Amino acid sequence: MPKSFDTISTPAVLLEQAIIENNIMRMKKLAARYRVSLRVHVKTHKIPELAHRQIRAGAVGIAVAKVGEAEIFARTGIHDIQIANLVVGEDKLRRVARLTSRCRISLAVDSTEHLKTIASVLGRKSGRLQLLAEVNSGLNRGGVDSYKELEKIFKTAASMKGINLAGLMTHAGHAYGATSKEERSHIGTMEGAMLVNYAERLRRSGYDIRIISVGSTPTANYCAAVKGVTELRVGNYIFNDMTQVALGVAPIDDCALTLMATVISVPSRDRVVIDAGSKALSLDKGAHGRNFVEGFGYIVGTGDRLSRLSEEHGIIDRPKGQYRIGDRLRIIPNHACAVMNLFDYAYLVSKRRVIEKVKIAARGRSD
């Protein structure tokens, strides 16, 4: 394993340990302040060792995006996993059922058709699953669009033997399109308030609503503060990135993930070329298709931005800083989650010292 940056082959993902620990503790304190459970979304880092750190720091469990991710993390002894997605298909549902013999599994559902499919495929095993009805709180992706649709799901579940419909969940991802702190605050507050209101109405109708799971890194401060919310679900906060910086959620100094790249050409004073392109940084300029981040990565130290990416090359046009061939640059990416899915390994570092080379065990597990 390389001991210093000089011997790391580039491009490479670097994870600054001290910043990670600070970010973990900051979110732990936020959840504790509002007395909500903290569930960490590990699709951001995809590294079991980091998930276990977050759990040791107080997280009740993890959230994943895919069944394949759940399988990876379950093998490492994590006992509470929420698949924050709609899992459809007999093969995938049977894989989920197998996981229930190893750990507690929660699953999203947003239609009576989906509910009936789960019961049909899994039979008596469906009772091992904890289901959460997904509500659309403004992202307009998955989730029911009205209370009437939500109540229909609960009525159907009540008529089916063994179905454990435990509560509600949502993701206000449209906060990634917010243009001010006030707009993020409004979205986060409404995210929590909508689910609490729906839960109260369902309880009055006799349904047992135990879980109200909300969250995103941009809305965490606001949705967690809503009285009645039981669970805060966040992921990107462990690293942060230029999307969070652009939104005003985190400062540059709280960004734990950098991509190290090497300057390979300086053809003119107006152009610098590095050995990292779209296959290392992705082409994201914001989440959920919202292209509001300037450039394709922020150069630490000079403040320059990558202005263009080819597959294997990044270009800084009209740089402010001085660059020479062979210089090692640290780049804060626009979207940390996407970058982590592009590499097999990352380096846990402390300033310029390499602590550990860690496997990104769940990268590529989109199944």
Q: Can you walk me through this structure?
A:
This protein is an alpha/beta fold and 367 residues long. The chain has two domains: 5-13 and 244-359, Lyase, Ornithine Decarboxylase, Chain A, domain 1 (Beta Barrel); 17-238, TIM Barrel (Alpha-Beta Barrel), CATH 3.20.20.10. The chain has eleven helices and 17 strands. Strands 1, 10, 11, 12, 13, 14, 15, 16 and 17 form a nine-stranded mixed β-sheet that branches. The protein has an eight-stranded parallel barrel with strand order 2-3-4-5-6-7-8-9, surrounded by six helices. Strand 6 (130-134), helix 6 (147-158) and strand 7 form a beta-alpha-beta unit. 46% of the residues are buried. The mean pLDDT is 95.
Quick overview of this protein structure:
With 367 residues, this protein is an alpha/beta fold. The chain is 30% helix and 24% strand.
Key phrases:
367 residues, Lyase, Ornithine Decarboxylase, Chain A, domain 1, TIM Barrel, 17 strands, alpha/beta, 8-stranded parallel barrel, 9-stranded mixed β-sheet, elongated, 2 domains
Number of strands: 17
Distance between the termini: 31 Å
> What CATH architecture label of the largest domain applies?
Alpha-Beta Barrel
Structural class, from helix and strand content?
A: alpha/beta
Q: Main sheet?
A: 9 strands, mixed
Full CATH superfamily name of the largest domain: Alanine racemase
User: What is the fold named in CATH at topology level of the largest domain?
Assistant: TIM Barrel
**How large is the count of helical segments?**
11
Q: Helix and strand succession?
A: EHEHEHEHEHEHEHEHEHEEHEEEEHEE
Q: How much of the sequence is in beta strands?
A: 15-25%
- CATH C-level class of the largest domain is Alpha Beta
**Average of the residue pLDDT scores:** 95
Helix content: 25-40%
Low-confidence spans: none
How many whole angstroms does the radius of gyration measure? 22 Å
